[in-house]
Design brief:
heterodimer; A: alpha/beta; Rossmann fold; 4-stranded parallel beta sheet; B: mainly alpha; ABC transporter involved in vitamin B12 uptake, BtuC; two-stranded antiparallel ribbon; 12 helices; 3% strand; Peripla_BP_I (chain A); Ethanolamine utilization protein EutJ (chain A)
């Protein structure tokens, strides 16, 4: 061993001794939190984003010395398994997370995975934290399920109300053709008609497989609608809006919540083409102090990159789980943790709750009051759903 | 049904508007058809050399769009300079593919070429995704005017697409028919052994053909990208159509690729407008089945196996 390496070895030994002494005093226990979601394949980016939110929260909690429950200090270890978006694999992962890692809580970012885990979560005693806005995951009466984001059905009335008031009562359906878009249409059309509107054209388009939207858009515009209902991924949705304007559409757009107005504006150079539209915006445009604090923190950690909705909601969700464990005084009893969730949401620090979620319903659906955005005179005006419905 | 009845009634008393809409679809069909034709042309030329479809052609198209995007956005170059830069880089890339991959495989069974082509496609897409990420980008264009001719909406970029694509096709046609070098490519596609017998250098012709296909892909991408989005999987959209087109037009046939491109473009525009946007791809494929059952070798075959 040369002199140099010996020196380095000594330094390393000293450093690790100090580190041991520092952590040894508290002797934090490790608590495994499970995650099963798509980490490879076509939906990998989505899965990675949801996982990133959990990991960000876990790192924060651990670097501040963990959290205390019943006199014991715990650090969080997020165990992530890839299910490639397949429910069957999610079920296998779920079993592994419970049996091998003793995870009391498992996160999953898709409805298929949620249904698969719901087949045995009550028996095996773990809480399913489901990141999906499909309402049925919490309508089946599973007692240990929490749905993290609000359901998309909450957008129907406020969107309809705003669009009708700004533009008129004739709507043309021109959104995308995937499952989520179909669910939306199924909920949107009855709401629109119940509020006195008519559907003048029904012409969904495949946003991912179309080389051009001129044909589909001109077909829809031939029926002279006041409002166009569009939406898929943000970028192609922006193209649809742009091409509708080119073809002379003067009305407003109702934009399905999958597309974010901020992302669309980047593609089509600002909000001018979205005049008279209603939709959702990214968290970065929210005015609430909790949202601002979270965005600032995320920007600082990621060289100014904007946080996605997935990161923000999952970050919040892990904090709410930790808070619920503290309220319940247990890290193992899933029923007690789930029962304490309502109290936990009330006591959560605003900076850990960027969307300001304060309630959870009896079925486990978290109740946020998200901002929706309208474009007036080229500017984005934000309103909470409750404000829109009130006036 | 109610909606449908309304729309029929509405279009009956709006005869003038219906004509505008018809002409609008002609324009849409021309735009799509000329781009499809351009991409299919490159594919059909290479088919003459490889005798298998080059699955990597869509990836070359995608690389062409990225090169133009970077030249314009990161280096601030002019649109036409970006197009030339992209044409040169993709031509070089296509020649490299031929030299490094397809040429060593020329004695191997055709299935090896197919596998290699798919390999190149996956490689290029993964490379671009690694370097630039999977996100959508939008290519700027200096031609943002929107012309309004007799009630039709005609963005300048779309006019450019149609003129550009047909100009390139005309140049290619003259090159193949009127020059000696061009004739060697045609000769090679028609009869490989015959071409060797009259002393045509197979290596040179192969490289040249790949370079031309690269240029066609890059120019097509640079023309079309400003009205669409730039992302790693953008080639899939066109390559599927291009396959249909060269089968429809006859494998290896140049007029077949152009006419086939227009047929598919018009089928999508008119089918999508008058029948259903949801079914426009089905209409294109139904047309393929129909044409193949009448003329199983495609519309313009020259006996290329």
């Amino acid at each position: 061993m040369s002199k140099g390496t010996l020196k380095r070895f000594c330094r390393l030994a000293c450093a690790s001794a100090i580190a041991l002494a520092a952590t040894g005093a508290q002797a934090a226990e490790t608590l495994n939190i499970g995650f099963t979601g798509p980490l490879s394949g076509g939906a990998a980016l989505y899965g990675q984003n949801t996982l990133e939110g959990l990991q960000m929260a876990a790192e924060e909690i651990n670097s501040s010395g963990g959290f205390q429950v019943d006199g014991e200090t715990y650090e969080i270890n997020v165990v992530s398994l890839d299910d490639k978006y397949a429910p069957s694999q999610a079920a296998v992962n779920g079993k592994r997370l419970v049996q091998q890692y003793n995870a009391p809580v498992i996160f999953t970012p898709h409805s298929g995975g949620t249904f698969a885990l719901q087949a045995f979560n009550e028996r095996d005693g773990f809480v399913v934290m489901s990141y999906t806005s499909v309402p049925t995951v919490t309508e089946k009466g599973n007692e240990l399920t929490v749905r993290i984001p609000p359901t998309f059905t909450g957008y129907m009335k406020p969107f309809t109300k705003i669009a009708m008031a700004q533009n008129g009562k004739k709507v043309a359906i021109a959104n995308a053709t995937h499952d989520y878009a179909k669910y939306w249409t199924k909920a949107f059309v009855p709401t629109w008609e119940a509020m006195g509107g008519t559907v003048v054209a029904d012409n969904p388009m495949d946003y991912n497989k179309s080389a051009d939207f001129y044909t589909g858009v001109s077909k829809v515009l031939a029926e002279k609608p006041d409002v166009m209902f569009i939406g898929g991924a943000s970028e192609p949705t922006a193209l649809v809006a742009k091409q509708a304007r080119e073809l002379g559409f003067k009305g407003g757009f109702v934009i399905m919540d999958q597309a974010k107005m901020g992302e669309m504006a980047k593609i089509i150079g600002g909000y001018k083409m979205l005049e008279g539209s209603v939709g959702v915006v990214p968290l970065t445009l929210y005015e609430e102090p909790g949202a601002k604090a979270f965005v600032a923190k995320y920007h600082q950690q990621n060289d100014g990159k904007d946080p996605t909705t997935e990161v923000a909601y999952n970050y919040f969700a892990l904090y709410s789980v930790v808070q619920a464990m503290q309220e319940a005084g247990t890290v193992e009893d899933a029923t007690a943790i789930r029962a304490a969730m309502g109290q936990a949401l009330k006591n959560l620090a605003p900076e850990n709750n960027p969307y300001g979620v304060t309630e959870i319903d009896a079925n486990g659906g978290m109740q946020a009051d998200p901002n929706i955005a309208t474009v007036k005179d080229g500017k984005v005006v934000l309103q909470r759903i409750s404000e829109v419905l009130a006036d | 049904m109610q909606d449908h009845a309304n729309s029929v009634a509405a279009s009956q008393y709006r005869g003038g508007i219906a004509l505008d809409l018809f002409l609008q679809q002609v324009l849409n069909g021309l735009t799509l058809g000329s781009i499809y034709g351009l991409v299919a042309l490159g594919l059909t030329l290479v088919y003459g050399i490889l005798h298998v479809p080059n699955f990597a052609h869509g990836a070359l198209y995608m690389v062409g769009a990225y090169v133009s995007y970077i030249t314009m956005v990161d280096f601030g170059a002019n649109y036409w300079i970006a197009m030339i830069a992209s044409a040169i880089s993709v031509a070089v890339l296509a020649v490299l593919c031929e030299r490094l991959v397809f040429n060593p495989l020329r004695e191997a069974p055709p299935i090896h070429d197919k596998i290699a082509a798919i390999g190149i496609m996956l490689f290029l897409e993964a490379m671009v995704q690694m370097k630039f990420g999977a996100e959508f980008r939008r290519m700027p264009t200096p031609y943002t005017d929107i012309l309004d001719v007799a009630g039709m909406t005609i963005p300048a970029q779309r006019v450019l697409i149609i003129i550009g694509a047909f100009a390139l096709m005309a140049v290619l046609h003259l090159f193949l028919k009127k020059t000696m070098t061009g004739s060697t490519i045609v000769a090679m596609a028609q009869n490989r052994e015959g071409a060797f017998l009259v002393g045509i250098d197979a290596n040179r012709v192969a490289m040249m053909t790949f370079a031309i296909s690269g240029v066609l892909a890059a120019v097509g991408a640079t023309l079309f990208a400003p009205i669409n989005l730039v992302y790693p999987a953008m080639g899939h959209l066109l390559i599927m159509k291009a396959f249909v087109i060269i089968i429809l037009g006859g494998m290896g046939s140049i007029p077949g690729a152009i006419v086939g491109g227009l047929i598919i473009g018009f089928a999508e525009a008119f089918g999508g407008f008058y029948i259903s946007t949801d079914y426009k791809d089905i209409i294109a494929f139904a047309l393929l089945v129909l044409i193949l059952s009448v003329k199983p070798t495609g519309l313009f075959t020259k006996g290329v196996r």
